[in-house]
Amino acid sequence: MIELRDLHVTFGRGTPLEKQALRGIDLTIPAGQFVTVIGSNGAGKSTVLGALAGDVIAEAGTVAIDGTDVTRWSTPRRAGLVARVLQDPMAGTCASLSIEENMALAAARGRRRGLGPAVGPSQRSGFRDRVAELGLGLENRLGDQMGLLSGGQRQAVSLLMATLAGSRILLLDEHTAALDPSTAEFVLDLTRRIVSGHGLTTLMVTHSMRHALDHGDRTIMLHEGKIVLDVGGAERTGLDVPDLLAMFSRVRGRELADDGLLIG
Amino acid sequence: MSVIALLGAAELGLVFSLVALGVFLSFRVLDFPDLTVDGSFPLGAAVAATLIVAEWNPWAATGLAMVAGALAGIVTATLNVRFKILHLLASILTMIALFSVNLRVMGKPNVAIITQDTVLTPFYGLGLSDAVLRPVFVLVVVLVVVALLARFLTSEFGLAMRATGVNARMARAQGVSTDLHIYAGMALSNALVALAGALFAQTNGFADVTSGIGTIVIGLAAVIVGETVVRSRVILWMLVGCVVGSILYRIAIQLALNTDFIGLQASDLNLVTALLVAGALILPRLGNPLRAKGGTAAKGGRVAG
User: How many domains does chain B have?
Assistant: First the structure.
């Protein structure tokens, strides 16, 4: 379970480039729920994920995961609770390490790393079985460098890595945005299988309203650092992309009207 | 070149292969260009020699020399990690400071231990001539270090250290405390360099405060030569490459200095070294005509390329 309470984040405070990225986010996500997040550039989508993963430390408000207040925890400390797949396939893996070494790194998330071998025979066979699930034929290439894989293959392995250490929360930051449409579909399909298979609490940021509605149980829309739309259940089932677009422009229009009042 | 000269070159190459292994850890594994080694090499020599003169057990003296080297590495890592000083500058600050520290440790610029008991003393009676014994002894030490280091770098902790150097952001997201691994890696790297200094003092019979000048270039040269000769992505072979590179480099230098018609003197050593390293960095780029013309030349400026 994820609980964000009145979360505020400001970048570059006191400089001319000061930006209020989050202005009071309240969000509760029950365990096992799959939430899609949309919003325009700079709306605060990635900042919300960053605040959950620990890359961004909130200046006000709290972040709680499964009832534990993790607001002040660093990224490595949270890694046992939260797994993350990034937009750039290069960023989420180590290109010059082998597939199995990348997996071993992920499998040791959240526990002490000792001087035992990182990849022993038992881990290797475990990794092979897991990679075989992807159906990409990578199970015979465990020793290959990660950098030799295509973007789609790397994202698929990244998703797999997110499940190796038993963390209950998965953060997906536009993880299909850098892929061609058919590869993106494959990765999304894999995402759905992995999320439901492991019952993961998931936040997926996407630029595609189509994807946002087709996947998951609930959709939230961010605008200027606030949640402006939160739909789930039956209400969401009836929604289509044009409805969402209409809501989006209505929200922006309301904002303009507010500004107009201020100026007037 | 005589057999004695060849053995001498091999011995020196083996001693400096420990420097190469340390440089491999900082430059290649951690992607941390570390010049501290120019100070931690004579530091190792100074600590070992001073303690040996004070009648310490030479093994204990060598161990303490390594601890001193590790501390020097931690100082550089602290300046960089904790106080955000650029890694290159942080290491230069430590290096400069160590010159004074080394003079304090020894109390004078040069300490002779030629008549003292060293780690080699027990083996002198075994019937091997000194010229053979010394390189064999250092070889055994180097092989043990290589085996331990290969085991370390393939352990969970070592893998996390390699990830820290390759992709620190990813490493942090996987729960790796990158700061801890930079401290540990820099300590280990400089401990190995100090071990080289301690062995250098004991095989040559003296410690000198100026003996560190250019250590980093020699270590880097060995790493680069090794990468050219031993092409592998397996950690063990990469480490063996550092050792082979170090020995080959010394033999090449020895040949250059011994070839009379070139007219080189011992004092030309640093110039020859710099030219060799520059050549080793430039030559691979000349081989590919597409690269030579393209914009990659600008990117290729990084030493650890």
Answer: 1
Q: How many domains does chain A have?
A: 1
Q: Chain A: give the shortest CA distance to residue B208, in Å.
A: 37
A52 within a domain of the structure (yes/no): yes
Main-chain dihedrals φ then ψ at residue A133, nearest 5 degrees: -60, -30
Whether B172 and chain A come into contact, CB under 8 Å, resolves to yes
Q: How confident is the model at residue B305 (pLDDT cuts 50, 70, 90)?
A: very low
3-state secondary structure of B104: helix
CATH of the domain at B284: 1.10.3470
Give which of A64, A51, A48, A74 is closest to A204, Cα–Cα.
Answer: A48
Tell me if A102 is assigned to some domain.
Answer: no
Of B156, B159, B172, the CB nearest to A75: B172
- Burial profile A72-96: b = 16 or more Cβ within 10 angstroms, e = fewer: ebebbebbebbbbbbbebebbbbbe
Bridge partner residues of B206 (DSSP): B112
User: Is A125 domain-assigned?
Assistant: no
Q: What are the angstrom distances between the C-alpha of B181 and each of A121, A146, B77, B171, B189?
A: 25, 22, 10, 10, 12
- Which residue has tokens 């400071």? B97
Residue A256 included in any domain: yes
**Residues in chain A, pLDDT under 70:** 255-264
Write the single-letter amino acid at B98. L
CATH of the domain at A178: 3.40.50.300
Work out the average pLDDT over B293-297: 42
pTM of the complete model: 0.89
| Containing structural domain, residue A57 | 2-94+168-263
Q: Which residue has the tokens 């365990």?
A: A31
Does the distance separating the beta carbons of A113 and B171 come in below 8 Å?
no
CA angle in degrees (0–180, nearest 5) for A199-A205-A207 = 135
Rounded to whole angstroms, the Cα distance separating A29 from A8 reads: 18
